[in-house]
Amino acid sequence: MTPVRLAILGVSGIASGYVKVARALPGVTLEAVWGRDAARTRAFAARHAIPRAETELSAILASPTIDGVLILTEPARHIELATLALEHDKPMLIEKPLGMELTACRAFVARAQASDLPIGVVSPYRFNPLLAGIKADLDRIDPEAPKIAQLTLFWPRDEAYYRHGDGWRSRDGAVLVNQGIHWIDTLNWFFGHPERVEACSWPSRPFLSGADAGAVLLAYPRHATVLIAAGTFAPEREDQLVIHHPGGRIDYAALRGPPAPRHFRERLGRWLLGGPVWGRALPDMMALQLADFVSALRERRPPAVTLADGLSALEVALAASLPSRLPESATAPA
């Protein structure tokens, strides 16, 4: 097996998860980590036994011993780092979202597509076997048959979460750009790219400037429509996706089964009542996507989730996150 030597760009909390996953892949080594803060970068390297800690990006990108990079910084810096990696012919996997400025993202994608570098964007839901099965079922349905999908996404996120780091989440971490963009990519995978986006999105709390709540309608080609309700202000619940079509309905939650119980008493209660004790287990989709990127790097092919996929998801997520506006004819209530 061809050895693959990777470097991590960024020492955020998510980077530690990638270290664990990368170390489990055959033939993969982590050669270096880059960060802007020297002390923090050295501490990250020491904690994870990574040989090199760099604050000069060129030291990594110009290194012939680095086969590819994982871009794991805050989203506003993704395109800047990806552009530099592209100039040094480094394959890369970019954390979601692709970026925050559409013009810059589109320019980067156009430039990168002229190369043969394996470049992907993180969207692990494509590696979910249940969603892959739904995709296969949809492909067997008459493409002109009407389909209406309902997607509900709620995850509680408090002020501390949004204030963490430099506070980018409170500004740019809109619910469908940050938490929900994996589902946006999944819907695009199922139905194509929307022809129309209609949204009513807003920040639900005073410490936010980005939209953490929204109701969105996506009109896809061939009579497919998706209704989304999403927010980070409400109690957590399992993600719900139901697709209605002339032959019946596809229910993701029903396919997945009940969520795994978090406490022993809940497991015991399920067992006594004859119910499933653990719920249906899903594979580590992040590990599957990283394994696909490594295989793409070895085979010099596009990853399963391409730059074009990442750009399409970002375009939809940003359009769905615009603040709602009153029609010009509307008047304020008395």
From TrEMBL:
<dbReference type="InterPro" id="IPR000683">
    <property type="entry name" value="Gfo/Idh/MocA-like_OxRdtase_N"/>
</dbReference>
<dbReference type="InterPro" id="IPR036291">
    <property type="entry name" value="NAD(P)-bd_dom_sf"/>
</dbReference>
<dbReference type="Pfam" id="PF22725">
    <property type="entry name" value="GFO_IDH_MocA_C3"/>
</dbReference>
<keyword id="KW-0560">Oxidoreductase</keyword>
<protein>
    <submittedName>
        <fullName>Scyllo-inositol 2-dehydrogenase (NADP(+)) IolU</fullName>
        <ecNumber>1.1.1.371</ecNumber>
    </submittedName>
</protein>
<dbReference type="GO" id="GO:0102497">
    <property type="term" value="F:scyllo-inositol dehydrogenase (NADP+) activity"/>
</dbReference>
<dbReference type="InterPro" id="IPR055170">
    <property type="entry name" value="GFO_IDH_MocA-like_dom"/>
</dbReference>
<dbReference type="InterPro" id="IPR052515">
    <property type="entry name" value="Gfo/Idh/MocA_Oxidoreductase"/>
</dbReference>
<feature type="domain" description="Gfo/Idh/MocA-like oxidoreductase N-terminal">
    <location>
        <begin position="5"/>
        <end position="117"/>
    </location>
</feature>
<dbReference type="Pfam" id="PF01408">
    <property type="entry name" value="GFO_IDH_MocA"/>
</dbReference>
<feature type="domain" description="GFO/IDH/MocA-like oxidoreductase">
    <location>
        <begin position="152"/>
        <end position="248"/>
    </location>
</feature>
